[in-house]
From TrEMBL:
<dbReference type="GO" id="GO:0005739">
    <property type="term" value="C:mitochondrion"/>
</dbReference>
<feature type="binding site">
    <location>
        <position position="133"/>
    </location>
    <ligand>
        <name>FAD</name>
    </ligand>
</feature>
<keyword id="KW-0496">Mitochondrion</keyword>
<keyword id="KW-0285">Flavoprotein</keyword>
<dbReference type="InterPro" id="IPR008333">
    <property type="entry name" value="Cbr1-like_FAD-bd_dom"/>
</dbReference>
<feature type="domain" description="FAD-binding FR-type">
    <location>
        <begin position="74"/>
        <end position="182"/>
    </location>
</feature>
<feature type="binding site">
    <location>
        <position position="148"/>
    </location>
    <ligand>
        <name>FAD</name>
    </ligand>
</feature>
<feature type="binding site">
    <location>
        <position position="199"/>
    </location>
    <ligand>
        <name>FAD</name>
    </ligand>
</feature>
<feature type="binding site">
    <location>
        <position position="132"/>
    </location>
    <ligand>
        <name>FAD</name>
    </ligand>
</feature>
<feature type="binding site">
    <location>
        <position position="158"/>
    </location>
    <ligand>
        <name>FAD</name>
    </ligand>
</feature>
<feature type="binding site">
    <location>
        <position position="157"/>
    </location>
    <ligand>
        <name>FAD</name>
    </ligand>
</feature>
<dbReference type="InterPro" id="IPR001834">
    <property type="entry name" value="CBR-like"/>
</dbReference>
<feature type="binding site">
    <location>
        <position position="131"/>
    </location>
    <ligand>
        <name>FAD</name>
    </ligand>
</feature>
<dbReference type="Pfam" id="PF00970">
    <property type="entry name" value="FAD_binding_6"/>
</dbReference>
<dbReference type="GO" id="GO:0090524">
    <property type="term" value="F:cytochrome-b5 reductase activity, acting on NADH"/>
</dbReference>
<dbReference type="InterPro" id="IPR017927">
    <property type="entry name" value="FAD-bd_FR_type"/>
</dbReference>
<dbReference type="Pfam" id="PF00175">
    <property type="entry name" value="NAD_binding_1"/>
</dbReference>
Amino acid sequence: MVAAAALLRRLSARAAPALNALRESNHIRRFPIGTAGAISGGAAFYYFYSSPPTVAQLDAQGEQTAGVVALDPDKWLEFKLQDTARVSHNTQLFRFSFDPATKLGLDVASCIITRAPIGEETEGRRKFVIRPYTPITDPESNGYFDLLIKVYPEGKMSQHFASLKPGDVLEVKGPIEKLRYTPNMKKKIGMVAGGTGITPMLQVIKAVLKNPDDYTQAYFLGLC
Ligand SMILES: Cc1cc2nc3c(=O)[nH]c(=O)nc-3n(C[C@H](O)[C@H](O)[C@H](O)COP(=O)(O)OP(=O)(O)OC[C@H]3O[C@@H](n4cnc5c(N)ncnc54)[C@H](O)[C@@H]3O)c2cc1C
């Protein structure tokens, strides 16, 4: 547990400037939208949507959206790239957004699959490159998910990721469950991972650490 907690602290310290940059950029983008609304006489509209919701509104919203998830295991759905942040010389964080009233719909530990139209059309049919990735966001997060991706110089999909600009979309399907983690299902869990193999381990480690009633001891050995 100590080893896993130390690993998370180190990763957080590394990703903190990148994540802060993401948060700041969100803030900067929202401001002009509100200002424009006020100037064009939409002040009341802006006030309504920027005011904290009442308890009754939250209850109503909660009833409508409880259990609503953004992912569909049978359908390719488009998710918009909100922002990116560099984490190391070859690794980037990609934040995708969706309806903030919903959750992604991912259980620990699961991955998603992504596809991108890469390459020539053959016989009038589009060719896609398909690759799995493991979101590192808390499954309870509303409205966004983060992918931590190593960009390979010749990698088809990772180069596609690297070429994406905020506002571009990515097609995603899922989730695909790898292992259903339940609190205290094991007394100790040992994890060994290399490179980006860390991402599914992060899902489990975060799930253990965020639950005060989970007494699992998690050990992580990372190979670079
Ligand atoms: C369940 C699962 C979860 C995953 N989660 C993540 C994640 O969270 N983050 C992440 O970054 N990755 C993750 N991956 C890996 C990811 O799916 C891709 O494999 C990875 O991004 C590389 O894909 P690519 O298309 O960019 O590279 P590819 O085009 O597949 O190439 C990969 C590497 O091999 C080299 N290569 C390709 N073809 C050849 C060849 N013929 N000869 C020699 N070398 C070659 C390329 O130059 C490149 O360096 C996950 C994989 C799995 C199975």
